[in-house]
Amino acid sequence: MDRRHVHTRTIDIDATASLDGGVAVEAKLCDIRRISFMGLMGGQTINPGLIHDVELGMELDPTQTVTASEFKMHTMPFKDRAETEGMICSDIEPAFADLRGVTYKGAYTTSVLKAVGGPRGCFHGQSLAIGAGPVIEQAFERLPGHEGMSIGRHILIDSYNYGDNGVSMTGVLMDSLVPLDLSGGPIGDVLCEIDLEIALVVPGMVYSQVSASRVDGNSRRTLEEAEGLKGLKMGPGIFAEARSRLAGGDGGLFELLSMMIPVTTQAAITQMRRTGKALPGRGRSMAQIDSCHMWVADGPLDRRVQQVVKERFGKEDGHAK
What we know:
By secondary structure, the chain is α+β, with helices and mostly antiparallel strands. Helices cover about 25% and strands about 30% of the residues. The protein has one domain. It contains eight helices and ten strands. Strand 7 and strand 8 (about 165-180) form a beta hairpin. Residues about 280-285 and about 315-320 have low confidence and may be disordered.
């Protein structure tokens, strides 16, 4: 099968025990675009390379409550204030201090979304905060009695285009217990390793083929769970539907899938343009709208895209008012 590598996302989350019985978390996300593509801000060509390099640090006390939170954007797509009416991606960094007071034992994901979800934050920082949840849980369960060790979760997602309208994504999730001091070599234990592969076609965006395996447990059961995702369609409610279909599993497969779903648009963007479907800025099909403070509905980026759409297609998008 002739395929083209288009996008890579890496996520690394590490948790260590604090002296007071709490946990410190360091989480990092990087996006690497493997091909040139047309940008949304006037049709300029954007070269391959690093798109996002962001990190989130959190400290939790022994009650599993966030006492400190800091978000940094080292590489970001929008950093020229002249192009975006004075706004840039990193303006939102201070907002992540609002994660202080969030308790993992409570409704953690809901609390994160309330604090930094949608236009109140950065989608990638939000993803790191939510993705850190299972690592926080493991840290409080496993690290006591394992001084000098850390819990790590490492996710690699690669995306490919094939044929005229095919898209495939492969994801690997690995949890490990490793020593903080690696001077003697990276000796540790792999706690979990899950592989997931998804295929779909544009413009349908329905999972047509799904396969999964795991190294550390019942691979057959994991495959059966993954096959239940066939027919899942990208769009509103996909996370809830996926969680429902994977109910009864150990959670690891859903946690990997939830990190792969947001990459689907990046994976499919060249195929969408090839087929003439879901062109940039075409209404609510554009997943960026209200996903972060930069892409707030009717904000500078949204208005700019609406202008580009009008110039190219001679009509309003129907989204902007």
